[in-house]
Amino acid sequence: MDTTSESIKIGVSACIIGEKIRWDGMHRRDLYLSEILAKHVEFIPLCPKITCGMGIPREELRQADCAGNIRLIGYKSGDDLTQKMTEWAERVLHGLGEEELNGFVLKQSSPSCGMHHAKIFSTTGKPHRLGSGFFARKLIKYATLLFKTLSFKTTPKKKHRCTISCHRLFQKTVELGG
């Protein structure tokens, strides 16, 4: 990828471009992202769980709705990691402007990065609901960027639309002098 100032810089969940940083030490590499789209954009990898200090391997996390306050909880231990992730996210989000990112591609269904399909569990016995992941929610509030989610299950048609959206966003950024 040509990384001149004319490049499209996209933040990306590190696990979907092949970094082995998931809770189990694996990745969810998406071939379309890592082999096709990567030729046209500069990816800036990010993993909220790793960069806020959680290791590999680590306990799986879940989001829990505690009386309207969504917490990030260790799946088996019950440890509350909300404050740790919140403090990290606030520091990182304030630094995003320096990266001059044009958007994000986030891991679908992730409790931290999922945009629409992350499970949010009830503490009152109700069935889980779907919503944004913990970091994705904060990112949406902070940034006015193009948000797309992809995963290894995404259809070729959706991937093509994502590519078109990235190119359109880049054209708008150039037109606005960005």
What can be said about this structure in brief?
With 178 residues, the chain is α/β, with parallel strands linked by helices. It has one domain (8-59, 82-113, 133-175): Rossmann fold (3-Layer(aba) Sandwich), CATH 3.40.50. It contains five helices and eight strands; from the N terminus they run βαβαββαβββαβα.
Structural write-up:
- It holds the Pfam family 2-thiour_desulf.
- It comes from Pseudodesulfovibrio nedwellii.
- InterPro entries: 2-thiour_desulf.
- This protein is an alpha/beta fold and 178 residues long.
- It has a single domain (8-59, 82-113, 133-175), classed as Rossmann fold (3-Layer(aba) Sandwich).
- It is built from 5 helices and 8 strands, in the order E-H-E-H-E-E-H-E-E-E-H-E-H.
- Helix 3 packs across helix 4.
- The chain is globular, with a radius of gyration of 16 Å.
- The two termini are 19 Å apart.
- The relative contact order is 0.18.
What is Rg? Answer: 16 Å
Please identify the structural class as seen in this structure: alpha/beta
Helix-strand pattern: EHEHEEHEEEHEH
User: What is the class in the CATH system?
Assistant: Alpha Beta
Tally of separate helices: 5
**Cα separation of the termini:** 19 Å
Overall tally of structural domains: 1
Strand content: 15-25%
Please bin the fraction of helical residues: 25-40%
**How are the strands of the biggest sheet laid out side by side?**
2-1-5-8
